């Protein structure tokens, strides 16, 4: 597959092409600037002392030895920072219990990694030495880390003031579930878990803060997905004016949701910098990243599916238990609500009833991790549908096709209140089945089974909720912003409110600009991640960059073109003008003016068109009318080794429909990476706490992020069903691979082991677990 | 107590008095001023800090600066020559083997070693050759493509 290089012609359309990325040269040469690369005069270094206990009272903190160490400038504990506002939770739910989340622990710690004190020194080694010299006298108390145990009357209570660990109960129902179950021919039930995962962005979090005393202004550099929201929220925590704080997001080394947050350290380090009058840098260690940056997933769910004998699904009843951890981070309680919204999947049934219980545990908070609530739901839906197929002895593809929402039913309003925008759900299924050779594989499977081999074919057909989202459905605005500025020279600068961190919008957005304005990619600069430069924006998460931020850009470009056309008409002295391919031209008199000539005139402004201001700069805030709903089909072929429990992935085929593709090369990258994270959950990854609250998987040495040797070849294809929600027709693809993957993988292995009577396996499917199943028999 | 350490980094000799416990990654980043090698785990698992030490790929977070005394280090900053990207960099660019870019400098150095040792690697050779470098973004597939492409590019110019 070839890749085109940057073209020089202005007429060649770039949207839809495999264009290599504008951002890559700096990344390939080591010249990109991540937070840790920042150097400032007199920069000081912070280290944080963290709780080694899952739950404990703090009796006393002795900082004297640390303060006496040469090079140590300051030490602060909870008492010093009591007046800094709490770490924010942006979610409101009826009856939600929200514990005050101080930036440093006050008299108790609630999880391993809970920040207790901060040390500032002239050197990073001295800061860490000093942190080790701080003596904290703890009185450990019983902890609870299993969310189901935490719901019991007898459980230790994470926040004793609340009296129980139940933070909220959320119920949602549509249709008539009780009748559906009463009249069902078949009911399948299963407890299905989605284990805690550690997002593991390769770049840990990091913060640098600089207090400009004369200007009474703070600059905060942070590795985040949401610079503007961070500015608003950190300013609030510090009690300063929002415009006295500038947040800059330099290069960000991955986020996957873990940087869609405001953490204690952002306000804490800013406060420390103000307090000592020196710039301060804090770079999270990997161990800290595992202990105190949010985890993902953490579900224990009970699913019931009702169906008729012919395979028609009639209803779903679900109890979801979300392990929240010890606090709410920015969106913690919202994530499992997204699971509830997802429950009907791609299917037509109208009867759904869900009860969701959010439970505090002595663990780091859970929050958005790639897919955020949707993989949890999709995994369970696609598992329980497979269980129904097994129960009815139906082919799992046939059962799905029978229950899909039909093409003519869109827009389709679901039992959970969503309005699916567009879809052709059978198309990716047929395409994936054809690529993998589904019918032939089922024949091969029969032959394999006759030989005693454990061969499995797993299918998942997923849907997701993307392009977050309409503001009415979001905690803090779901619109996005874009400014398009044609400079006097004709170069184009775009300021986007999104905050891309690896997705490649400096390229995809430039492709859109290039096509609309007829300029080359090199003429376009995409600017993001600086609140002093870019108008307010919401940020990057929920597969929203192109579908919402790109739509804002597209709308701004239309106004820019209209203005260019007005100038062109004036300059060509005719109303018969068109803006095309970087020029305004008049079909009637054959004359033309270039973008550069027009922009020059717009800024010289010696003559202006009627009712037209000088300059060319348009800012649009675009509000999406709905979410978008991508979908797809993944098929995974496996063979399990009886002697070792090893799972050999023979084929991995995915056909994703994310609407219109702006850059297929980048879309493939998103799918591959998404599948890797889905496979990670399905096969290897698991954050493990013991009963006392110790994080057993506290380093990369103990947590199985997939390596190159562990990944199969991914055969990725697409169908294209445009979304009517935005003018680009895009749906979003950031999370698709992850959402579609884990059920296909697990369904494949359950299928492989089904001759042994295996009906369900909880993730991760470690070789040990599989070996035990093979040798112990039925689960 | 400090030691005088002299390391040739990308062809330029750097001499500094360092504490014996100073990690090579911090010598490179804080004293030499390199921004290519990244600290991703401090336990030699992720490989973001990979550099070549006398031509061999090593994890600079798991070596002390004193261990590099008198030796030659190549970081990613030493790959391109006179502003022209190395064929491996060019191939990574063409094949979209980079997303967030944090693992990239270390990954490139491991690939450099891989192709120095094995100019025509199979897919399995490639996957094993970069096993010590984690990438959380790409799922490795485009990296595998890039290494194949780099091998072809280098073969063509050899």
CATH topology of the largest domain in chain B: Ubiquitin-like (UB roll)
Q: Could you name the ranges of chain B where pLDDT drops below 50 across 5 or more consecutive residues?
A: none
Order of strands across the widest beta sheet of chain B?
Answer: 2-1-5-3-4
Kindly state the number of beta strands of chain A: 28
Query: Which bin fits the share of residues in helices of chain A?
Result: 25-40%
Q: Number of folding domains of chain B?
A: 2
The CATH architecture of the largest domain in chain B would be Roll
- Residue share in helix of chain B: 25-40%
**Total helix count of chain A?**
19
Q: How large is the count of helical segments of chain B? A: 5
> What is the typical, i.e. mean, pLDDT of chain A?
96
Structural class of chain A: alpha+beta
Q: End-to-end distance of chain B, in Å?
A: 48 Å
Oligomer state of the chains in this structure: heterodimer
Q: What this model shows, in words?
A:
Chain A has 779 residues and is α+β, with helices and mostly antiparallel strands. In chain A, helix 6 (227-238) packs across helix 7, helix 9 packs parallel to helix 10 and helix 10 runs parallel beside helix 18 (736-753). The model of chain A is unreliable at 1-9 (pLDDT under 50). Chain B is α+β, with helices and mostly antiparallel strands and 158 residues long. Chain B has two domains: 3-75, Ubiquitin-like (UB roll), CATH 3.10.20; 87-157, [2Fe-2S]-binding domain (DNA polymerase, domain 1, Orthogonal Bundle). Chain B contains five helices and five strands, in the order E-E-H-E-E-E-H-H-H-H. Chain B has helices at residues 24-32, 87-94, 104-117, 123-129, 141-157; strands at 3-9, 12-18, 50-53, 56-59, 72-74. A five-stranded mixed beta sheet of chain B has the order 2-1-5-3-4, sandwiched between helices. In chain B, strand 3 and strand 4 (56-59) form a beta hairpin. Chain B is globular.
């Amino acid at each position: 597959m070839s890749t085109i290089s940057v073209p020089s012609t202005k007429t060649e359309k770039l949207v839809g092409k495999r264009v290599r990325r504008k951002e890559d040269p700096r990344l390939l040469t080591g010249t990109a600037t991540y937070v840790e690369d920042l150097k400032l005069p007199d920069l000081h270094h912070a280290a944080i002392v963290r709780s080694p206990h899952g739950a404990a009272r703090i009796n006393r903190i002795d900082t004297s030895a640390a303060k006496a160490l040469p090079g140590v400038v300051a030490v602060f504990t909870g008492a010093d920072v009591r007046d800094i506002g709490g770490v924010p939770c942006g979610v409101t739910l009826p009856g939600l219990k929200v514990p005050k989340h101080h930036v440093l622990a006050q008299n108790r710690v609630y999880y391993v990694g809970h920040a207790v004190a901060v040390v500032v020194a002239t050197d990073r080694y001295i800061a860490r030495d000093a942190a080790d010299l701080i003596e904290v006298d703890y009185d450990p108390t019983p902890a609870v880390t299993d969310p189901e145990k935490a719901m019991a009357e007898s459980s230790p209570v994470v926040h004793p003031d609340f009296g129980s660990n139940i933070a909220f109960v959320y119920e949602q129902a549509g249709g008539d579930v009780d009748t559906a179950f009463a009249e069902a021919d078949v009911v399948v039930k299963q407890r299905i878990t989605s284990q805690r995962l550690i997002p593991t962005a390769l770049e840990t979090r990091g913060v640098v803060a600089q207090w400009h005393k004369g200007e009474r202004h703070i600059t905060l550099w942070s590795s985040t997905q949401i610079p503007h929201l961070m500015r608003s929220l950190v300013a609030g925590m510090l009690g300063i004016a929002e415009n006295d704080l500038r947040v800059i997001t330099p290069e960000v080394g991955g986020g996957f949701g873990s940087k869609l947050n405001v953490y204690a350290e952002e306000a804490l380090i800013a406060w420390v910098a103000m307090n000592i009058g020196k710039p301060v840098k804090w770079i999270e260690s990997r161990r800290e990243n595992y202990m105190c940056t949010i985890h993902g997933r953490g579900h224990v769910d009970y699913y019931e599916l009702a169906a008729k004998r012919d395979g028609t699904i009639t209803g779903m009843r679900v109890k979801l238990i979300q392990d929240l951890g010890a606090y709410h981070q920015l969106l913690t309680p919202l994530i499992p609500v997204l699971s509830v919204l997802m429950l009907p999947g791609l299917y037509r049934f109208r009867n759904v009833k869900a009860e969701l219980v959010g439970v505090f545990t002595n663990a780091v908070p859970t929050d958005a991790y790639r897919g955020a609530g949707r993989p949890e739901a999709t995994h369970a839906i696609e598992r329980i549908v497979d269980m129904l197929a097994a129960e009815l002895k139906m082919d799992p593809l046939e059962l799905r096709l029978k229950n899909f929402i039909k093409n003519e039913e869109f827009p389709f309003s679901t039992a959970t209140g969503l309005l699916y925008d567009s879809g052709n759900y059978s198309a990716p299924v047929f395409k994936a089945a054809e690529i993998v050779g589904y019918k032939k594989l089922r024949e091969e499977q029969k032959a394999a089974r006759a030989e005693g081999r454990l061969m499995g074919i797993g299918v998942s057909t997923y849907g997701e909720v993307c392009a977050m989202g309409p503001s009415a459905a979001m905690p803090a605005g779901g619109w996005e912003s874009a400014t398009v500025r044609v400079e006097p020279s004709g170069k184009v600068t775009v300021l986007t409110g999104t905050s891309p961190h690896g997705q490649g919008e400096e390229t995809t957005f430039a492709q859109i600009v290039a096509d609309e304005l007829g300029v080359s990619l090199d003429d376009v600069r995409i600017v993001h991640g600086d609140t002093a430069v870019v108008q307010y924006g919401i940020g990057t998460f929920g597969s929203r960059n192109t579908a919402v931020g790109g739509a804002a850009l597209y709308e701004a470009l239309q106004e820019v073109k209209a203005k260019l056309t007005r100038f062109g008409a004036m300059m060509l002295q005719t109303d018969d003008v068109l803006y095309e391919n970087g020029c305004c031209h008049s079909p009637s008199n054959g004359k033309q003016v270039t973008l550069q000539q027009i922009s020059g005139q717009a800024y010289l402004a010696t003559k202006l068109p009627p009712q037209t201001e000088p300059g060319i700069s348009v800012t649009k805030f675009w509000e999406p009318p709905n979410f978008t709903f991508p979908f797809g089909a993944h098929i995974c072929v496996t063979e399990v080794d009886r002697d070792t429990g090893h799972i050999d992935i023979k084929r991995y085929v995915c056909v994703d429909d994310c609407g219109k593709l702006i850059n297929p090369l980048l879309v493939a990258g998103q799918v591959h990476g998404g599948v890797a994270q889905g496979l990670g959950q399905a096969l290897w990854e698991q954050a493990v706490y013991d009963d006392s609250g110790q994080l057993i998987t506290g380093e990369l040495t103990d947590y199985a992020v997939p390596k190159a040797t562990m990944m199969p070849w991914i055969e990725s294809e697409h169908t294209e069903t445009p979304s009517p929600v935005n003018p680009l027709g895009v749906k979003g693809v950031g999370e698709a691979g992850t959402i579609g993957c884990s059920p296909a993988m697990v369904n494949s292995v359950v299928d492989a082991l089904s001759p042994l009577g295996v009906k369900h396996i909880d993730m991760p499917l470690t070789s040990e677990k599989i070996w035990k199943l093979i040798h112990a028999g039925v689960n | 107590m400090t030691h005088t350490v002299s390391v040739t980094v990308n062809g330029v000799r750097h001499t500094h008095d360092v504490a014996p416990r100073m990690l090579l990654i911090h010598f490179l980043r804080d004293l030499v001023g390199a921004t290519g090698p990244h600290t991703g785990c401090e336990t030699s698992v992720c490989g973001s800090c990979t550099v070549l030490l006398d031509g061999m790929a090593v994890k600079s977070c798991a070596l002390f600066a004193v261990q590099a005394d008198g030796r030659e280090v190549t970081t990613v900053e030493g790959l391109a020559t006179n502003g022209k990207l190395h064929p491996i960099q060019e191939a990574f660019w063409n094949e979209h083997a980079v997303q967030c870019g944090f693992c990239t400098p270390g990954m490139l150095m491991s690939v450099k070693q891989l192709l120095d040792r094995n100019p025509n690697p199979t897919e399995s050779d490639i996957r094993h050759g970069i096993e010590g470098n984690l990438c959380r973004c790409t799922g490795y597939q485009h990296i595998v493509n890039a290494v194949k492409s780099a091998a072809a590019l280098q073969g063509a110019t050899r």
